[in-house]
């Protein structure tokens, strides 16, 4: 009814290659972004900003990064937490060691440092594959955990290994209130999502996907595995690193290496898979699911009046069961569920 | 007809909740016969076989309408393993050998459901090797490292190891050298006449399929568009033109074909 | 149909031997391919036909022997070099990128020709966008040519086998190859589809002057459309010549054709 | 409408650290219930809500955001990681943090850390008290010269906190310090204890949490290191740490945060009567009076007394805001008389804070596991202010510089 | 030299304990192609069940016999593991036939969450004790040769022997039974295995039960070493480098991998650790595994990774 492609004829390939070739999609996404920028700041409570929206946005960014690596290039990584840590600590060091370093630049530099580390740990992927690689990437996780605890220089000789940042200042705009933080993250994430979307629908994106789906065939059509895999690691860790920096700077304010421990890596992988491998949109769905669900469950179980322990055990159980449930309903994630729904809508009211 | 082994009754199959592939397919396979299922790419042959052997679930497909009966028993709810227990086994399209197992191990897994003792299994193994001598020479290689044709033989041999009553063969000729294709069909005939094994085979190679089959169904776009005795089908002008490549009597050289898509109209 | 000019030797395979552990996949194989011709390789299952293509293609490294392509001689090439020199291929066991749409699969064949860097692609402004559109236009021509317009945006994993084969061909064509290696492009097709595919192959050969090396088990097709045929058996060459020569070769009849053809 | 003072309670009753988190939480909540049973804080009823953090920083932050909206009086995160994160947020929200016996050691400097209250002692206090004790046992601190002391620590900011002090002290006293980090959660310590066996230190200090403590003791048994030479921090000196080691842990010492296991104390008896006696106890009865339960109670008492003190200035029987409570905590004056009245006679020594000193006390005792219970084994020990003060100041200054904040002036101290 | 030996032997022992957990991973992977991240949770669950049941047993039977209590605990815990295997097959794996490895892996993470919550709800989250009478005191060898002797933990020795026995039995199961072959077939291709009549559901219940058994043994040994509590589920992380080093599909690989990792880890921590400030063993284990994988991407004994076109 409302959702129809009919009558939307593309007169140029360019038009067909837009991010959202279907007009309704474009409208919906446009409205959503506008809503997020213009309406949410007036509607949301401080709790919503600080405890849900900001972590949701930052983790979406990290999930986009991880999705590039896992979803698009097919290299499973369990070291994401480590790359986030690199981004956070590197950004911190740029801030603290270079006087007058703009925060934005520091975050980007954090991303770049994560890129370097990511590429380094990506080198084994040229030889090791699949689950072997997945487990091997834990090396990155544990090594960075260790390095930031042990090497004092990284933490500016802080005895405990934990660091904190001074005020966030974006070209004179002091980002202080939750709303400002939210807007900052939102802007950041929207730009990054746009860049990521552009990449995955360009030829580099096709190279990644080709590596994922069939690497021998990819080599035969002239794709260099080295280049494809390492760029995927690079781009992925760039986004992940920036997300790490934001996590430290904006969400936590002060952090220790444990903020980026292995559970973070697993959570991110969850987001990517629940959301949908190989889908930028899915990264958002996944992040929302993993950030919001436990909180909702927590609140619900507490509301029912269970003791804290029972409530949180129950939360664990429901959370685990829901993950399995979603995987069964749609192994390709929420994004696929979404597109199936769209397909149905397109056919509506005819069943097929 | 009392000896109907398999009766497929107006089934619809949907993949992924949205893609409707079979739109009411009905067919019958009498006991002890070879029935061919013909049709172009994407007609739904594989899907039909999967529906019978209950392998649709793994592809996220489901039968939404109609019924399938084996000897009068409804079988839609059975698991693939239960189907094998009832003597119905499918040779999947695209080989699907167990890559890490050797050829012989592959064959032996086929005998998993057998209860009649080691000796009997060994005997069947010898029979399979006799049918496919090439497999015997490659028995210790991992299946993944054998050639495409060898894998095809392995897949067929593996199914035979179960001593089936009915075999669903999906594109047996694909990738086989011509004389092996002949051999495979000879084997089919052999099993059919000697051991009374019933076959339902999906084939693109219409020519040979109709030579060996008793009866044929032609499937296009998820519907049965024609069926009849194999002999009769072979004589049918449309079949000749579209499936045997012999428009106007003689076989045309592939070099000279210029396509004129009358077929599209025929199907509409 | 205009008479095709068959030119000089473009690809020369000399004394190739390939072993996998104890298995001798290829033993001392030599043959050549001339420009613009359609060269078929036939032989029983496991004869080493696919392995031969894999050697030319740089997927396998033969233990012995050399390959000369356009006057340059290699004992081993890596796949990318081969691709850059203009050799494309299709695969026997469908090696498509299953998760990608038809368009993306074929576009990926244009990969070598796309030059914009990572940053341009990320911003997707100017050059990157232009490039994308240009190549898309080319790919659309291939899609038209192969008559798969209706499936453009379908993930290839969902297509029936025969169409997947076409997409595989499309991806190879997108590379604008000088030599096209086809590994059983017609397996699993019915006669009509084989006719279509034959026509595609002949058209490619005609219109773009692409040299074609073809592996096929359907003797009808091979005999009809190829200019010369190599016959392999158990890794050895047992015949080489025009279709009619090969058809009457005793060894070939015994090893491969059987009596019925 | 009845006046209510809201206390958020961050707990971890599940996960790796639950065995330690649960008794603490039970003690904390029971004390709040007890206060209500006694008529609240000058008539102001206490309400509270638990939030499960699982010892994870991000969950802690979420809990903080959720509960602060409900008018939180004071937070006690019971996790070094969460403390670090909340330290950044508390000033903006004007909610004080009590981190009694944990958190940043330099946050004792109230001039920089306006909102942090590491009451009763920091890790530097703990470490110094242990050294004092060892010194005494050897007949003077100077006897430590030439000795070898190993620190087996949880490889995290928590475990690393005592290192600066121990190093400073090593320079002064001339002992050799060996650092042996154990990766969290500390289930595998074989390499660590092989190193201990090889270098044979005279003393081992144990800075662990959760399973790491009992695993360390078991490895000590397995490598034959004498438990009498082992000294734990107060987070490594409670029942869960030794319970399943049993006899093997006999002789193992730990420094206390003043209190130990005190089932006989008046407050415990009162709680048994007023809370458990009325069927309102949070955990099992046997737990009441154990070390971590006591700690939960003590921590709750500090929070309640902070509010009570604030009421003295801002109005008795009124609900105190976070800022007002901060003033109360900053001007705590719990003398012996008050403590005795509260039922903490023999459990705690007087505590008095000021704008500059947010710690309020630097006393500790040793207790030793006798196979069945923790028994005190030393007199009161006091950390050396001469050593600690400058270190705190220096570290706090560094923090202030990094964060670009300036020290509070006298006027600010009045607020 | 004495100390080197001590470290070396200590490493071997620790490695054996890792193997015990690695075994669970290998079993399930070999038989269903599932990389089972829930193995750690299963170890914890099994140990909790055994600890609690044997704690409650005297109350039910009225007898004080420790042996009896332990046996009851073990048997009931095993029953729990079989039930668990059945539930997992019925509600999770059975519905995910023919899905990609990574989806299955995520499903096992879901199971992990569920089990963590469920186990703690049913059995509590305190520290519990499993006491199967393993000797705690150290043993000294070669006291005449080296000063102070070479210390060996008797408890570890005990555990190592049990682990070795278990592995031997399981390796035989895979090698010499026809079920072993079917299991490997399932791992290669679910759908093809189904098509030839291998009943996936039954196979999976069997395999997960066997894995449950190995989890129970691991839980018993680790539990009596560490006490039974949540952290037990994290020892599974220690087994990860072991499985990739040994090869995901090889039972003997789990042992050799375990020994190599154990020794490498301890030696590195003791000899290199102090130079780098310590605490390096965890990542060193991975770096070591990585090093081996660069030479053999399928692990030491794993099945060759096949890529062919
Ligand atoms: N798993 C799947 N998900 C979605 N669609 C599918 C799936 N499998 C098959 N289809 C669709 O179902 C239709 C019929 O496919 P099927 O494989 O049954 O054809 P076929 O007759 O066997 O063709 P071929 O001769 O090429 O093997 C095709 O259009 C195909 O795209
Ligand atoms: N990577 C490999 N490892 C081991 N053996 C191999 C490998 N590749 C091919 N072989 C073996 O080499 C022989 C030739 O195989 P190839 O695939 O080239 O045959 P083919 O002529 O293409 O046969 P078909 O017509 O059946 O496809 C076969 O016996 C095969 O088992
Ligand atoms: Mg088919
Ligand atoms: Mg081949």
TrEMBL record, chain A:
GO cellular component: plasma membrane
Membrane-spanning parts: 27-45, 51-69, 76-95, 101-123, 130-149, 181-200, 230-250, 270-297, 309-329
Keywords: Cell membrane, Membrane, Transmembrane, Transmembrane helix
Membrane topology category: Multi-pass membrane protein
A Gene Ontology molecular function term of the record: branched-chain amino acid transmembrane transporter activity
Major localisation: membrane
Pfam families: BPD_transp_2
Entry's localization field: Cell membrane
InterPro entries: ABC_transp_permease, LivM-like
Keyword Disulfide bond: no
Xref: PANTHER family: ABC TRANSPORTER PERMEASE PROTEIN, HIGH-AFFINITY BRANCHED-CHAIN AMINO ACID TRANSPORT SYSTEM PERMEASE
Name of the molecule in the record: Branched-chain amino acid ABC transporter permease
UniProtKB/TrEMBL annotation, chain B:
Gene Ontology molecular-function annotations: ATP binding; ATP hydrolysis activity; branched-chain amino acid transmembrane transporter activity
Protein name: ABC transporter ATP-binding protein
Record domain ABC transporter: where: 6-246
PROSITE patterns cross-referenced by the UniProt entry: ABC_TRANSPORTER_2
Keyword Transport: yes
Alphabetically ordered keywords of this record: Amino-acid transport, ATP-binding, Cell membrane, Membrane, Nucleotide-binding, Transport
InterPro entries associated with the record: AAA+_ATPase, ABC_transporter-like_ATP-bd, BCAA_Transport_ATP-bd_LivF, P-loop_NTPase
One BP annotation, GO: L-amino acid transport
Pfam family, one: ABC_tran
Family: Belongs to the ABC transporter superfamily.
Lineage, highest ranks first: Bacteria, Pseudomonadati, Pseudomonadota, Betaproteobacteria, Burkholderiales
TrEMBL record, chain C:
A UniProt-annotated Pfam family: BCA_ABC_TP_C
Keyword Lyase: no
Keywords assigned by UniProt, alphabetized: ATP-binding, Cell membrane, Membrane, Nucleotide-binding, Transport
Protein name as it appears in the record: ABC transporter ATP-binding protein
Coiled coil stretches, renumbered: none
SUPFAM superfamilies assigned: P-loop containing nucleoside triphosphate hydrolases (SSF52540)
Organism name: Ideonella alba
Domain ABC transporter: residue ranges: 11-259
Source taxonomy: Bacteria, Pseudomonadati, Pseudomonadota, Betaproteobacteria, Burkholderiales
Molecular-function GO term, any one: ATP hydrolysis activity
Cellular component GO terms, alphabetical: plasma membrane
InterPro entries attached to this UniProt entry: AAA+_ATPase, ABC_AA/LPS_Transport, ABC_transporter-like_ATP-bd, BCA_ABC_TP_C, P-loop_NTPase
Domain of life of the organism encoding this protein: Bacteria
UniProtKB/TrEMBL annotation, chain E:
Family affiliation: Belongs to the binding-protein-dependent transport system permease family. LivHM subfamily.
Translocase found in the keyword field: no
Record PANTHER family: ABC TRANSPORTER PERMEASE PROTEIN, BRANCHED-CHAIN AMINO ACID TRANSPORT SYSTEM PERMEASE PROTEIN LIVH
Domain of life from the UniProt record: Bacteria
InterPro entries given in the database record: ABC_transp_permease, BCAA_transport_permease
Cellular localisation: Cell membrane
Name of the protein in its database record: Branched-chain amino acid ABC transporter permease
Alphabetical list of CDD domains matching this protein: TM_PBP1_LivH_like
Cellular component GO terms, alphabetical: plasma membrane
Lineage of source species: Bacteria, Pseudomonadati, Pseudomonadota, Betaproteobacteria, Burkholderiales
Pfam families associated with the record: BPD_transp_2
Keywords: Amino-acid transport, Cell membrane, Membrane, Transmembrane, Transmembrane helix, Transport
Topology with respect to the bilayer: Multi-pass membrane protein
Chain segments annotated as transmembrane: 7-29, 35-55, 67-88, 157-174, 203-222, 242-263, 275-295
